[in-house]
Amino acid sequence: MTSPRRPAEHRMQRRRRSWFMSSILLLVTFLQVLRHRASSDEQFMESRHPLGTRRMRAIPQTNIEKDLRYITFGSSITWGVGLDDFKQAYPYRLSSKVRNAASRMGGAALAAACTETIVGEDLFDVVTIEFVEFDETHVILSKRLRRRFPNAVILFVRLWHPENIRYTSDFGDIIDLNTWRTVNGGHSIYSSELALLMMEAGPAKWHIQIPDDPLLKNTVEHIGARVVILPMPDQEAYAFPQNLLSFLTFFDENEHHLLTARGHAALALEILSAVKSVSSLGTRLDGTVGSWGSGDQCNMWYYNGQFLTSSGQKLKFSQDGDGSHKHALEFMPGGGAWIRVTNKFESDRMLHLTYMTASDEEDNKVYPRTRVRVNNRAFVVLEPYNEGTDDAHLTRTSVVGRIPPGESVIYMDPLETSQLYFRLVGASLLSEEAIEGILPIDFKLEPEPAAAF
After folding, report:
1. What predicted TM-score, i.e. pTM, was given to this entire model?
2. Helix 241-248 to helix 192-200 angle, to the nearest 10 degrees?
3. What are the pLDDT digits (tens) for 379-438?
4. Other Cβ atoms closer than 10 A to 348
5. Pick from 300, 317, 306, 290: which is nearest to 452 by CA?
6. Are 402 and 348 in contact (CB under 8 A)?
7. Do 237 and 243 contact (CB within 8 A), yes or no?
8. What is the 3-state secondary structure (H, E, C) of 419-431?
9. What would the DSSP string read from start to end of 234-282?
10. How far apart are CA 23 and CA 126, in angstroms?
11. Angstrom distance (rounded) from CA 255 to CA 87
């Protein structure tokens, strides 16, 4: 006998199946969204590198020179290291049209050698170059930028740190604040106790030591630049603890070389004030541009994963806390490995390869010695070792020879067994100005620890 409740049970089963399938579909869609978001976040973080795939734009601000186009060069400060949100960094407080071309680690060598690749065809009205110690890399970078943008405002942004605050003892000894602070109770740079102790020690005995820099002065005069300095306390501030503390809050309490959001805001105001003081710069410039001189062509897939054509195995490694990865081409021994490099220029150019290096211990080699042949002719041997680096994996850039205009094939033959295969992360034709002025035959273009796995 057929139960009269059977149709109702069938309907209930169909509803359950329908609900189950809808739930599965919803879950799959949700996972796809998460996967897309994770991928997007990774691409977003990798694009922050100056040679990244996407150029960063600032969040629109108010009460700023919105129409002016800024590009900012610098190191970890300009990058935004130490902030809860990198958009708190001073570049993003300048304009809604800003490109932050800072390198998170290393100095200005990358920017000086690859200026054309970094800037591209974009136009800029204001250029800022942040530094703590001015050197030849900043000279080369600023000269290349002035040649490209003859009418732009170029500002050298000079930073100082609490360690630049010095105390002169009764015996004439000069002691930096960090040492003095340690001897006198180790108080935080934020504490009122420290400010009172400094006042009691004698306001006249304190000063900020920022030495004159002839190289900076000559460069400013030569290219027609200006210098902007992070606001500093004047002599009277040492007699008024609260005034002094307002300056010390520009810096991270523990990592004094990093700026807080307050410090970035103060620096942005100084830059904007300097720009506004140029009476001729009320709106955008007319877009006049010059040449790039010898030019450059930098291919660095270490951050962006934009590989050149190669027989190497594409690899992602070293996931960072920000969700990004490093990228490399791996080459195995005995495989006839090669990579194609195109020289876009009309003359022979020097080719530099960037690769991973690690410990140089004979019984603990991480990467193999590798022979490099240019168009199957002359060759050099790369030794991917760094003395005393322990477990750190660093990038190194080495010259391997000249290549003619057009396409060249570069062969790589690992010569020994090791823990990991040879990892290539870049192949570049650097600017002749950088090669002649600042770069030795073998140099670390952008050192950065990277645990390999």
Report:
1. 0.81
2. 130
3. 899 999 877 656 678 888 888 999 999 999 999 999 988 889 999 999 999 888 888 766
4. 13
5. 317
6. yes
7. yes
8. CCCEEEEEEEECC
9. -GGGGGSHHHHHHHHTTB-SS-TTSB-HHHHHHHHHHHHHHHHT-TT-S
10. 54
11. 19
